[in-house]
Specification:
The complex is a heterodimer of chains A (572) and B (337). Chain A has 16 helices and 20 strands. By secondary structure, chain A is α/β, with parallel strands linked by helices. With 337 residues, chain B is an alpha+beta fold. The chains are: A alpha/beta (572), B alpha+beta (337). At the A-B interface, helix 3, helix 4, helix 10, helix 13 and helix 15 of A face helix 1 and helix 4 of B.
């Protein structure tokens, strides 16, 4: 196969908020930068963020309160130096986005409007109606485009070139014609988003298969805190499509089949605006006790009918449309049916505060390799992320990564020349899948994996359920070797792409489950019914999971960076 | 296995869905294939496409990502009607077309594989209007730019465009005029031109004032407003751009702008629409010869008089309260060519 080698100063995989923020900074600094995305940048999942982006802009608010809420929300697993950096720089980051053109909603004085969100002691979520992510993604893309970024859209990055503690670029193929190319670079960044598609019931885009996570793991590099998956309280019953926390921020109430406002029992102070893990567990507990609604009793009601219709029409117009389009329920007239949906991965590729990828629990870094956004674990979210902190993290640490890469380039980081042989893994993967002539079908295997993950590794977990899921994953992994795809063509072979993605999904699912098995405590989004309390003595540590060539996963533990906030019991 | 679970069995419907198939690598001609399935009441067109791919033929290809109407990847046509597959209920379309639907790409002549088209013309036109705020951007600002709620409302949701291309590939003006920027690009031009932070509004208005490519080549058919899955009303923005060109003094005297102003001229003179005067005003007396054929037909039907358009003869009667009309024009007119 003819493999081209392109040389760049920097190559970035992923074109959401994090990737584009970095690309803009690098390009403006005159660094030759390539952005690779399997979609078009404007299709990135950052654009799906609805409710807001946090910054302590309110008169009663402070950076320190934002830090406290974030650390408490994380169930004290976040690294407090990173949280401090994020919260301190949040106001200037939002204002930077605003200066670039983001269309934020405004208050009467003409300032950026803010609304209350879950787990926060002050209204702090800056918003653009209920399409905050869309305006942010479009804005950063617009300005990156204006700066002249070079985008390889509809290219699939399938491997990194990693040797001797240094990453020197990525291998990718053009989805349009299956042409393979090496992007040889001095610095490489992953900003590829999350893996929410591991679960049957999820809020994520089809693209969110977490490819980069297992690409990293295949080279023996660790993944951090992968067992911490956020289940968002309000996915539309049936599809899992997201109804933003803004619906509760603006006053929405949760009711069970008896029309009881059940959050009174679980979070008497914060009620519907407790942190997401707390609300999701409350919803699933009501469902388990037979007080659910909907055709299978798996949902509860989210009621906004008591609100002034103008609030819904001016601040939540997209949400109203979604509930109508997906389940024929108009929130102006009736309560809508929602249920906890897999939403966000707190874990990811471990990085230090400067977004450099770490190669072990001790914190040694890989040379020339950076990560930011949902695919990374820096870690500011710990065991549970607060709503409206993810877009903030992506933009802020994405930009921070760009600045750090510029610094590395200015300090003279060298280019290790790639050879055509570096593309072997990518070429072999494509050929093997295309020529594999077994009797398993990718959609069936994926479905088994997803249904199992929601049932066995979802909101509630036990040793038994997780072991059952591990067995299921190993079975799917074995059968994956025996697949057959229908499409053998070179042009837009999305059948091939789905198969490659399934390979990545199986591996990252295994890392999630092994981590969840070994973490015998309940913290944030990880809830073990057999170990229902937090165990700071044993588990106030980050999980570092590595995978060997036979897909065996082993766990190491790394230190959590403490700070000004001492761990306390978490109550809302 | 559909993305959105089907509800009670009773509410499903057994139908045969047709899909337009083509692979530029292997096929000389496109063909149609049929897939039979039970469709539930909450299923979307994207669910049907997924089921074709996952249950029938893995080679069926289409773009998709967010599955809730915000990323803009999955715009296709069903029986010629533009839809965003992930937001369009399937039963609704089956009812509309008597259970006979064909999934088609947004633009067949640009098809690469099945529903996937080459959208490069869309993106080129998008780029042509300079779709970004142009000004020096402070990298570490300590305060936001103030913006009134009125200024925010003035975006008229133009910032909600998801670049799906539904309007672009439904626009008949674009179909016959490759140079035309099209409704999506013009919507973007509006979005940045009314942004109080932007400093290149006049430049952008000049781009959209070009004859052949700009707003004057819109034929006002409203197909774009019909096609838009986000209800953005691109033609409304095109109308706003027309006005902004006059308000900001960008409009130059040419056949198109004189044609627009000609309406006003007639109203001012008589209070009635003077068809012949519009032609004289916008194209000149020599230009009138071009339209002789039409003029004769119009005379026959009584739309114009034989001496219409001849100077010094008042062929149009005046309305009763002409002075009021003239006063209204005087206070509302923003620019004169």
């Amino acid at each position: 196969m003819d493999v081209k080698i392109y040389e760049y100063d920097a190559v970035i995989v992923g074109s959401g908020l994090a990737g584009l923020a970095a690309a803009k900074e690098l390009t403006e600094a005159g660094k030759k930068t390539a952005v690779i995305t399997k979609l078009h940048p404007l299709r990135s999942h950052s654009g799906a963020a609805q409710g807001g982006i946090n910054a302590a802009l309110g008169a009663e608010d402070s950076t320190e309160l934002h830090e406290f809420d974030t650390v408490k929300g994380s169930d004290y697993l976040a690294d407090q130096d990173c949280v401090e950096l994020m919260c301190t720089k949040a106001p200037e980051t939002i204002r930077w986005a605003e200066h670039m053109g983001a269309v934020f909603s405004r208050d009467k004085e003409g300032n950026i409007a803010i609304r209350p969100f879950g787990g926060q002691s002050q209204p702090r979520a800056c918003y653009a109606k209920d399409r905050t992510g869309l305006t942010l993604l479009q804005t950063i893309y617009e300005q990156a485009d204006r700066a002249g970024i070079e985008v390889y859209d509809e290219w699939y990055a399938s491997d990194i070139i990693y040797d001797d503690g240094k990453v020197s670029g990525v291998v990718a193929y053009n989805i349009k014609d299956s042409e393979v190319a090496i992007f040889n670079a001095k610095v490489t960044m992953f900003a590829t988003g999350g893996n929410g598609r591991l679960f049957r019931f999820n809020s994520n885009a089809h693209a969110n298969t977490g490819d980069a996570l297992s690409i990293v793991a295949r080279h023996g590099l660790p993944l951090e805190d992968m067992e911490f998956v956020q289940f968002h309280p309000s996915g539309l019953g049936g599809s899992g499509v997201l109804i933003s926390e803004a619906a509760r921020g603006e006053g929405g109430r949760l009711l069970n089949s008896l029309d009881e406002r059940f959050m009174e029992k679980y979070a008497p102070n914060a009620m519907e605006l407790a942190s997401r893990d707390v609300v999701s567990r409350a919803i699933m507990e009501e469902v388990r006790q037979g007080r659910g609604v909907g055709k299978d009793g798996q949902s509860v009601k989210l009621d906004l009918t008591h609100l002034d219709p103008q609030i819904i029409l001016t601040r939540l117009p997209e949400l109203r449309e979604l509930a109508i389009a997906f389940q024929g329920q108009d929130m102006l007239k009736e309560a809508i049916h929602i249920s906890a949906t897999a939403h966000y991965s707190m874990g990811g590729i471990p990085t230090n505060i400067d977004t450099q990828v770490q190669k072990n629990a001790a914190g040694d870094v890989v040379e020339g390799f950076y990560a930011a956004g949902e695919c990374a674990c820096v870690s500011v979210h710990g065991a549970n992320r607060l709503g409206a902190n993810s877009v903030l993290e992506a933009m802020l640490f994405g930009r921070h990564a760009g600045e750090n890469m510029i610094k590395a380039l200015d300090e003279g980081i060298s280019l290790r020349k790639a050879t055509v042989a570096d593309a072997d893994t990518c070429v072999n993967e494509m050929t093997t899948i295309k020529t594999s002539n077994g009797n398993e079908r990718v959609p069936n295997l994926r479905n088994e994996l997803q249904i199992g993950m929601t049932a066995n590794a979802g909101v509630f977990r036990t040793k038994e359920s997780l072991e059952k899921q591990l067995t299921l994953i190993n079975d799917v992994l074995a059968r994956f070797k025996n697949i057959r795809i229908d499409d053998k063509s070179k042009v837009f072979n999305t059948d091939l792409q789905e198969a490659i993605e399934l390979g990545h999904m199986i591996e990252s699912a295994k890392i999630v489950v092994v981590g969840a098995l070994q973490r015998e405590e309940s913290r944030g989004g990880h809830y073990r019914e057999d170990f229902p309390t937090r165990d700071d003595e044993k588990f106030m540590v980050h999980t570092y999971a590595t995978m060997d060539e036979d897909y065996n996963v082993s766990i190491d533990w790394g230190k959590v960076t403490p700070g000004k906030f001492e761990p306390m019991e978490r109550k809302y | 296995m559909s993305e959105t679970q089907t509800v009670e069995q009773a509410s499903t419907r057994k139908v045969t869905i047709k899909a337009w198939r083509f692979n530029a690598e292997t096929d000389y001609l496109p063909y149609t294939k049929e897939y039979t399935m039970e469709v539930g009441k909450d299923e979307l067109i994207l669910d049907l496409m997924n089921r074709i791919k996952w249950e029938h033929d893995g080679s069926f290809s289409y773009r998709r990502s967010c599955r809730h109407g915000i990323c803009g990847a999955c715009a296709i046509k069903v029986n010629g009607k533009a839809v965003l597959a992930c937001k369009q209920n399937a039963i609704e379309l089956l009812d509309m077309f008597d259970n006979d639907i064909t999934l088609e790409p947004s633009s067949k002549k640009r098809a690469i594989k099945d529903m996937i088209i080459d959208k490069s013309d869309f993106w080129e036109k998008h780029t042509a209007v300079k779709p970004y705020v142009i000004r020096d951007i402070e990298s570490h600002p300590q305060a936001e730019t103030k913006q009134s709620i009125e200024e925010f409302n003035n975006f008229l949701d133009s910032d909600l465009c998801i670049q799906c291309g539904a309007c672009h590939y439904s626009c008949p003006a674009l179909e016959v005029n490759d140079a035309f920027l099209g409704p999506a690009a013009l919507n973007s031009a509006y979005r940045f031109t009314v942004d109080p932070r932007d400093e290149a509004g006049d430049e952008r208005l000049s781009i959209t004032a070009e004859l052949g490519s700009g707003v004057w080549d819109c034929v006002k058919c409203f197909e774009c407003a019909e096609a838009c899955p986000k209800d953005i009303d691109p033609i409304g923005k095109i109308g706003k751009l027309h006005n902004l060109q006059f308000v900001r003094g960008i409009a130059e005297s040419n056949i198109a702008t004189r044609h627009a102003e000609g309406f006003l001229r007639g109203m001012k003179k008589t209070g009635f629409l003077d068809e012949a005067d519009i032609v004289t005003y916008s194209e000149g007396y020599l230009g009138m010869y071009k339209h002789l054929g039409t003029a004769i037909k119009m005379m026959k039907t009584g739309k114009i008089h034989w001496h219409s358009g001849i100077p010094f003869i008042d062929s149009i009667p005046k309305i009763k309260n002409l002075d009021e009309v003239q006063k209204l024009i005087e206070i509302s007119q923003t620019n004169k060519l």
